[in-house]
Hints:
The chain is of the alpha/beta class. Helices cover 46% and strands 8% of the residues. The protein has two domains: 7-178, P-loop containing nucleotide triphosphate hydrolases (Rossmann fold, 3-Layer(aba) Sandwich); 184-287, no CATH class.
Amino acid sequence: MARAFAEIVQPDEAIEPILARPVRQALLEWLEEIWTEPELMAVGVKPRRRALFAGGAGTGKTTLAHHLAARLGLPMAIVRPDDVYGRYLGTGTSNIKYVFDQAEAIETPVLLFFDEFDTVAQKRMRSGVNEAAEHDHNAMINTLLARLDAYPSFIIAATNSAQSIDESVWRRFDIQIAIELPGQFERERILARYLAPFGLGREGLRHLAEAFATATPALIRSWCENLKRQIVVGPRCGWDMTKHAVVERLIAAVQPHPDAGKPRLWSLGAKDHAVGMMPWPLPRSCDVPDDAPAGDRDDGGNVVRLGSTR
Ligand SMILES: Nc1ncnc2c1ncn2[C@@H]1O[C@H](COP(=O)(O)OP(=O)(O)OP(=O)(O)O)[C@@H](O)[C@H]1O
Ligand SMILES: [Mg+2]
């Protein structure tokens, strides 16, 4: 049986990420460009088709690529380094060909998403230390360049080590976007989304978002979801459900990556004044008079919604 060339995810499984304004603006412009393809073609230019997302682990690169595919109504094929350096098909060159051949053979176009792209598209080597390996890698990069150029649909590549990517490969991407850590405004919205159906009220959210400064969206999501697990499971198991005990258990169980900055909450623990500001037991957001609507509060000025124009 043919080896799966990628994991295919469908548009209806996508979620809309909460992004800082400049990133959302750049992506919205790209979508507008794609939606205006016939008019662009009439004046001799095509919409851009290849984007590179650079950002640390858990900043939302995969989530964003999936959301964009969904906005374009396309399935997304996630190609991981293992699919390129697989055990069965020999060299990276033949695997790259296999991935593109398979993607192009699908009747409906798919957005190709290369995850951990730096592992595949590392700079070409000319050290002479291991000539056979260097030759293989360089041949693979040449194939990759040709196939990137020829692929008829959209390609997004994600990396958390942009500086390792081969320069010629880099130049094949018409859009390079840095996915930064969320700012205070985005953290408030991410917290509101993942705490739902519970709510803290605007002040509570503001304080907690400050205590999460430097956290990735992935860490915020994990903390909120574990909090909800504690709220449901803890009383059944007879755990200490005081706010102090719950927060301390959460902080012990959900840790930021050692290379990432430690948000204040992890330094101060339950003594953080943001914890003091948290209403407890956590109310439902519908019972908090000044709460942000569960999910995504959108209070104007700072927000450009990606999904708003079509
Ligand atoms: N901007 C965001 N808004 C809401 N949720 C987000 C956002 N970014 C990430 N998440 C959530 O955080 C988790 C991790 O996100 P994702 O896998 O997209 O990160 P990533 O940058 O691809 O990480 P990695 O480098 O490890 O592949 C997901 O569960 C996702 O739903
Ligand atoms: Mg990812």
